[in-house]
Specification:
Helix content is 32%, strand content 28%. Strand 5, helix 5 and strand 6 form a beta-alpha-beta unit. The strands form two sheets. A nine-stranded mixed β-sheet has the order 14-13-12-11-7-10-9-8-15. Strands 3-2-1-4-5-6 form a six-stranded parallel β-sheet, with helices on both faces. The two termini are 26 Å apart. The relative contact order is 0.15. It has two domains: 128 residues, Rossmann fold (3-Layer(aba) Sandwich); 182 residues, Dihydrodipicolinate Reductase, domain 2 (2-Layer Sandwich), CATH 3.30.360.10. The protein contains nine helices and 15 strands. It is α/β, with parallel strands linked by helices.
Length: 345
């Protein structure tokens, strides 16, 4: 295949990272970037002189030379931009979350299928070495039955004007958990509060119930003094901790657990047995996950493959976010999650 002509729409926080990675791929021609802000375009021009910066979205959408686009704009604009690009037969990579509603996601999936275009969502953590190693460990049975998963993703800021903290931060952990467990939750409950902007929760805790009995808790906040990115997976045999902030030991396996005695004669004789074993740090070959994600997008276009984080993956995450929002606004009761395409990759 000849080099893929690609453009990146949105040059704010994440867009420049997409530009850099596509620019470095040998089978890509990173030709255009688009943003409404002239200062951001000037910065991109200084970093990548060979790339043409434009401030009109139409210059990207109507350009027949461009075969694929990566969208890194605010969530409310994802659907409109992606639909316009798909209608012009362009392949589309959208940053998370895929769109503002399941209805928008379903329309984009249907349009991509109709046009035979690749539609992929930027669930970047599914492409990290640590998450894929954790998935391998869970699948091997080393941890035993998975009792629960606890996720903490907190920091001070960045406040978003159009989405709450769950829509901003939880998509990462939702996609990670479902990817590791290879299944989707059936219900979600949530508690949260908006301290600064009315109806935009800046702190929240949601709980997810999975079909196999596993429960997962996700704590998100824009109001925490520390930046924490940690997932704890507790199994019947062992426990695993994934600390994304740790530069050298992102995964640790703890040979710890609780054992119930097989029998006892009196209540006084009943005692749990606590096991305190070794701590093991698996070796991980680190690489930039976004590079893997961009390579996968190009590979799927070239080989007509289904992306790991395809449109249905994005749809499932958005359906969970919608249910979490309903719970946040209705006293925290569990909300049923609509199931889409039960068969996973």
């Amino acid at each position: 295949m000849e080099k893929l002509d690609i453009a990146v729409i949105g040059c704010g926080y994440w867009g420049p990272n997409l530009v850099r990675n596509f620019y470095q791929l040998s089978d890509c021609a990173m030709k255009y970037c688009c943003d409404l802000c002239e200062d951001k375009l000037k910065r991109m021009a200084s970093l990548f002189p060979s790339i043409t910066p434009v401030n009109r979205l139409e210059d990207i959408i109507t350009n027949a030379e461009i075969q694929a686009v990566a969208i890194a704009t605010p969530v409310y604009s994802h659907y409109k931009i992606a639909r316009a690009c798909l209608e012009q037969d362009k392949h589309v990579l959208i940053e998370k979350p895929m769109a503002s509603s399941t209805e928008e996601c379903l329309e984009l999936i249907a349009l991509a299928n109709q046009r035979k275009r690749v539609l992929m969502v930027g669930h970047t953590f599914e492409y990290t070495a640590a998450v894929n190693k954790a998935k391998e460990i869970v699948a091997s049975g080393e941890l035993g039955e998975i009792y629960y998963i606890s996720c903490v993703r907190v920091n001070l800021g960045l406040f978003q004007p159009d989405i709450n903290v769950v829509w901003d931060l939880a998509p990462h952990d939702i996609s990670i958990i479902s990817y590791i467990l290879n299944q989707d939750p059936v219900s979600v409950g949530g508690q949260g509060k908006a301290h600064y902007n009315k109806n935009i929760e800046d702190v929240a805790i949601i709980s997810l119930n999975y079909p196999n009995g596993t429960i997962a808790f996700i704590h998100n906040s824009w109001l925490d003094p520390d930046k924490i990115r940690k997932i704890t997976i507790v199994g019947s045999k062992k426990m695993l901790v994934y600390d994304d902030i740790n530069p050298n030991e992102k995964l640790k396996i703890y040979d710890k657990g609780v054992e119930t005695p097989p029998y006892y004669d009196t209540y006084a004789e009943f005692q749990f047995s606590y096991r305190y074993g070794d701590i093991h740090t698996p070796h991980i070959n680190n690489y930039e996950p976004l590079r893997k994600e961009c390579e996968h997008f190009v590979e799927c276009i070239r080989d007509n493959k289904r992306p790991r984080s395809d449109g249905y993956s994005g749809l499932r995450v958005v359906s969970i976010l919608e249910a979490a929002n309903r719970s946040l606004r209705n006293g925290g009761g569990y909300q049923k999650i609509n199931q889409y395409e039960s068969a996973r990759n």
